[in-house]
Design brief:
- It comes from Mycena rosella (Pink bonnet).
- This is NAD(P)-binding protein.
- GO terms for molecular function: oxidoreductase activity.
- Keywords: Oxidoreductase.
- The protein has 346 residues and is an alpha/beta fold.
- It is 48% helix and 11% strand.
- It has 14 helices and 8 strands.
- The chain has an 8-stranded mixed sheet, sandwiched between helices.
- The protein is globular and about 55 Å long.
């Protein structure tokens, strides 16, 4: 599918379907980036569905605690939300979160990977990668790999079908993998390196990270068994009011405020898409496998994603991702060996 800027803007004026609903009694839901914006609004929607456990995964203790207090005042009727700390810019923090879930998590029915950043300049993470790349494209898959066994066990023990919803974006339509990178060595190492992340590259960094999110969802789904009890989707919330653009300043910040005022969805409207990925279309689950979701319906991703060139890049990035994250935590390799095929299904 080819998406024009005009089509994108036009889509911002569409009337969105109401939020999907389900009975989550006894089920466990984790939402990353749950203290603000889309993540917080999604947690409010989930809270009204009476989950057994609702875990707000946040980077900041103070902001996460404030979110819990706001939820109590939001008339959800839900008082048992939990705050767990995770910093996706730090692999050690992601591993600690997974360790905590191993000890205290129990079942896991819904994982919404919403946390993400939109940088304006290069900044190195604790692990030496460009921060946005690590947060959006490395730690997001790392947590998915580490928690996937819990979702599979949940499916077996409770005869249910857990869901993994990864927040992507329609902006993935407006980028590809640069030829100099695809013709070079390790693509992921290149994307995360200080040498590669020039000011020009960083101006389109967010677009690339969202493309890689779509690749991850499609690659993971392609390596699951066709009838695997796990639904993985890439979610486009649309252009919404959020704190994603808080690093902007000056003219850029002014332009963003004008765009928000003219055609942005509210955070609650965007959150409906996250919820749809988590509970929508229960009667047609197979139609959701590996799909890109826009405005509560499946939609073809970009022409590059579905092209032969895009498929080649997707498979290569998957192999590099597994190898790199396997060194970060050997449990990644165990998960891949036990639950996934070594190559994509034909």
């Amino acid at each position: 599918m080819k998406l024009s800027i005009w089509a994108l803007i036009k889509g911002q004026f569409a009337k969105l379907p109401p939020v999907a609903k389900a009975d989550l009694t006894g089920k466990t839901v984790i939402v990353l980036g749950a203290n603000t914006g889309l993540g917080f609004e999604a947690t409010k929607h989930f809270a009204r569905m009476n989950p057994g456990r609702l875990i707000l995964a946040c980077r900041s203790q103070s902001k996460g605690q404030a979110a819990l207090e706001r939820m109590l005042k939001a008339a959800t009727g839900f008082k048992n939300a939990e705050l767990w700390i995770i910093d996706l810019a730090d692999f050690a923090s992601v591993k600690s979160f997974a360790d905590k879930f191993e000890q205290d998590g129990g079942r896991l029915d819904i994982l919404v990977e919403n946390a993400g950043v939109a940088p304006t300049a290069y900044e190195a993470s604790k692990d030496g990668m460009e921060t946005a790349f690590q947060v959006n494209c490395m730690s997001t898959p790392l947590l998915a790999f580490l928690l996937l066994p819990h979702m599979m066990r949940t499916a077996q023990q409770y005869s249910t079908v857990p869901r993994l919803a990864v927040v992507a974006s329609e902006v993935h339509h407006f980028t590809t993998i640069p030829k100099d990178v695809s013709d070079g060595g390790d693509m992921l190492a290149t994307f995360g390196s200080a040498a590669y992340c020039t000011p020009k590259v960083m101006r389109s960094r967010y677009l690339l990270t969202k493309l890689l999110n779509v690749f991850f969802v499609r690659a993971l789904n392609a390596r699951l068994a066709p009838a695997a009890p796990l639904i993985v989707t890439a979610i486009n919330p649309g252009f919404c009011y959020s704190e994603l653009n808080r690093p902007l300043s000056g003219v850029q910040a002014l332009i963003m405020r004008l765009m928000h005022r003219i055609f942005a969805f509210t955070a609650e409207e965007g959150a409906r898409q996250l919820v749809f990925g988590a509970v929508g279309l229960p009667e047609s689950l197979d139609k959701l496998r590996g799909q890109y979701i826009n405005q509560s319906r499946t939609e073809e991703p970009s022409d590059f994603v579905i092209s032969a060139e895009g498929q080649k890049a997707q498979d290569r990035i998957w192999d590099e991702l597994v190898e790199t994250l396997g060194k970060v935590d050997p449990r990644v390799l165990t998960t891949v060996d036990k639950y996934l095929s070594p190559t994509a299904a034909a």
